[in-house]
Amino acid sequence: MRILITGANGLLGQKLVAALRKDPQTDLLATSRGPDRTPEPLGARYAPLDITLEAEVDKVFAAFMPEVVIHTAAMTNVDACELDPLACKLQNVTATGNLIRASEHHGSHFILLSTDFIFDGRNGPYREEDEPAPLSIYGHSKLDAERIVINSRLSKWAIARTIIVYGIAEGLSRSNVVLWAKSALEKKQPINVVDDQWRMPTLAEDLADGCIRIAKRGATGIYNLSGPDGMSILELVHRVGVFFKLDTSVVSPVKSNSLSQPAKRPPKTGFILDKARRELGYAPRGFEDGLAVLRDQLVGTQ
After folding, report:
1. ω into residue 125 within 30 of 0, thus cis?
2. Per-residue pLDDT tens for 228-247?
3. Nearest to 15 by CA among 139, 162, 231
């Protein structure tokens, strides 16, 4: 199976590459903007690709002819999207359109990564068929990308929605909330953490496994792929502290509206995972089990 991954240098992208690079059933092509940043260079199985440029997309697709495309690349900094909506649209909407057109031409099974931020957070956790109502430029851009996929001429497509992906990988341009919490608590400096946002954090390895299950089963439609445990961001930080035996007395709860962030966040999201469990055999690890995976990887890098 020829699988093309976009965003291969990102957190999820690197986990997908790690899971697929030695899979005898997979012919892998990893793509991302700039050079290969995976720990063990992929050589000919990596191609630099700017997905906002249609000609570049067409050239890479013509050379590799992917049977499956797992589209993880996106502008995901919610506040940066709010402040630069044109860049957000280019990277999240226009780029998806370029990939869809190429996938239509080659008959590829297209898998789009999406987000809980397509919902307004008034009545989570959500099922796959619940009505989206995004609050931010980022949320709107991902919903627009979903609609491009759904309204395409593709014979096979899937959308994998997820929530707060955490983990470690090489050379990431952005951290994630779990690593931020651990680092902040280790510094023993006072930190403010919101107590009015509720999420279901997702271990990157589990999300990669869910995407691969969609690919290998030829599954179509929308799937919720998050962690199984729901909690406020405040509780998340406390649980990270307890797990790593760090002092959480430096943490002060605050409300979201006190932070003056450019983008509005949904208060309570979360996903009902019944469909993915039933149809894909998706079995995400609980939060502390995910933290144990992270701890073992951090020890391995020291």
Report:
1. yes
2. 999 999 999 999 999 999 99
3. 162
What digits encode the pLDDT tens for the residues 126-185? 999 999 999 999 999 999 999 999 999 999 999 999 999 999 998 877 789 999 999 999
Grouping H, G, I as helix, E, B as strand and the rest as coil, residue 166 is strand
Length of the chain counted residue by residue: 302
Cα(123)–Cα(260) distance, integer angstroms: 24
Q: What are phi and psi of 94, to 5 degrees?
A: -60, -45
This model's pTM is above 0.90: yes
Cα 181 to Cα 201: distance, rounded to the nearest angstrom: 13
Cα separation, 141 vs 208, in Å, equals 22
Domains and CATH numbers, the chain: 2-175+201-228+270-285 (3.40.50.720)
Q: Distance between CA atoms of 145 and 126, rounded to whole angstroms?
A: 19
